[in-house]
Amino acid sequence: MKGKVLLVGAEDEENLAIRYLGAQLQENGHTVRIVPCSNRNEFSGVLKELRSFHPDMVAVSMAFQSLAPMFLELIHKIKETNPHVHVTVGGHFPTFEFEKILDYKTVDSVIRFEGEAPISSLIDVLVNNENLSSVPNLVYKSEKDVVKENHLITEFPDLNRLKFPLRNNKPHTRLGERFATLVTSRGCFHSRCIYCCIGAFHKQKTGLPYALRSPENVALEMGKLYHDQKVRLFQFHDDNFLLPTKEASYARLNTLKRSLIKEGIELEDIALLIKTRPDGVDEDILALLEEMGTVGVFLGVENASETGLKALVRSSSVEEINSSIELLENFDMGVTFNLLMFHPRATLKEINENIYCMNKNKNLAFDFGRAEIVAGSPLENLVKRKRLLEGKWPHWDYRIQDDAVEKLFRLNSLTFYRENSLYPELSHKLIALSYRSHLLQHFYPGKKSGNLKDETERLISKVNTFTLESLIQIYSFVGESEIKENLNRLSNEMDVFYGNYAERASKLGEKMGRFQVVEKKFQEKGVGDYFQNSTTLGRIFRI
Ligand code: SF4
Hints:
Its cofactor is [4Fe-4S] cluster. The chain is of the alpha/beta class. It folds into 3 domains: 4-149, 3-Layer(aba) Sandwich (Rossmann fold), CATH 3.40.50.2300; 172-402, Aldolase class I (TIM Barrel); 415-543, no CATH class. Helices cover 48% and strands 16% of the residues. The protein contains 19 helices and 18 strands. A hairpin with a 2-residue loop joins β17 (389-392) and β18 (395-398). α7 (215-229) packs parallel to α8 (246-262), α8 (246-262) packs parallel to α9 (283-291) and α15 runs parallel beside α17 (484-524). The chain starts with a strand and ends with a helix. Residues 188, 190-193, 196, 198-199, 239-240, 277 line the site of iron/sulfur cluster. Iron/sulfur cluster is lined by residues 188, 190-193, 196, 198-199, 239-240, 277.
């Protein structure tokens, strides 16, 4: 007998986690519906689907720790609506926190680690009234309220044999282009960063801590998206798009490039966004990535001091970071990065070195913050061991050992990251604008796209200059005791500045959108240059 499964997950873009599960379930003959839920306003959509679809099982993807309370609330409502439906949850967070999650009586089971094989087995067992004990990776409570942990799968699935994730009929649009996300691998060859749970997530696996899809298999999926859905922008969600050695990366990229051409993809007609560690790139690799249409690189800098990199167990060096940024500046790619300059052992010297890095790279879009506690990460164990843990599950907080850095972090939380601060959203907007300005250069090279790129760089530099000045002011407050007035003044200045620049960033995004719409039409008629060089048309379309 086959079953009906309702898959629920946050979907700001297609959620590959649930979409891989959906594809596997369909392959095994089950009926699947996917319903997005990224916030409480979407509860009604889930409940409506629950009433009309009558699923045998609801599977909730609880990948993000911050969203766990919201999903537990949703599950409560699901059970109020249909007390008999089996509710299972999965994802990184429940994989490690299954005991606490199973304390919620509304959750019937938790699927730990990767879910394709377990979810298919679970629905089979449910519709055929069999015993849950045969379902791999499953945890649940017995009738006597004892947590039962089933056997674990110790190998990665063969990624080349997995069905491609289910897609919507119409792709999302991002940066003004038809867009899809993909993964080319699972796990991570490094698997050691202190703030990351990926090492623990794949710890039970025998063999390497990561698995790869073949380049041919990746190209096949991209070809389908390109031809059937006219997708042009592909974002790779692999934490490391590149491999442990440069030789291996180069060979893999070369095969991917050849395979894309074989699939009938015009390389100049696609754009890629990737993430990589700084030690992963060299000139040949970047040249190949550029040829394949890479317009954005999120560089895993994470900390710009040797002691910080060591404390975060990044296994990369400041020299590698600097040389990769220098190298990347010779290529037409938007380079962005994040600095986790606050962590339990951070010192003021490290903070200085990170500020120095920001100042040196003011032309790039970046973000900064604290290494947060993710369930299953080594950081979680460290702060517990050092008795630095504060706050409440699942929103853990912790103290930084150095009092001055701790104070600096709290002052940052009261300014840059206070509730309703416009800075976090603006920094993400700038990252998107950086990628988009390079995408425009790639798809629509010419005078106007060049001007838009220059405008983006100026905007990013202005915001970063103000951010650095503010950060230095906050730094100067650390040694003072009477800071309330200064802090309020600075917060007000930030509101005005970031409010103003958030609006400018939105307007620039809109301008890029208008440019793309018009330039596409001119390109179709073979006269793209005419629009790029026309002052009159520029005035008409406000570009
Ligand atoms: S942060 Fe990135 S490099 Fe570090 S372990 Fe996680 S996935 Fe790997």
